[in-house]
Amino acid sequence: MTTMRAKLRVGAVMPYRHPETGETINETLYFHGVAKNSAYPADGSDEDNTFAKFSPAVNMNIVIANPALFGKFQNGDTFYVDFTPAQA
Question: What pTM did the predictor assign?
Answer without folding.
Answer: 0.84
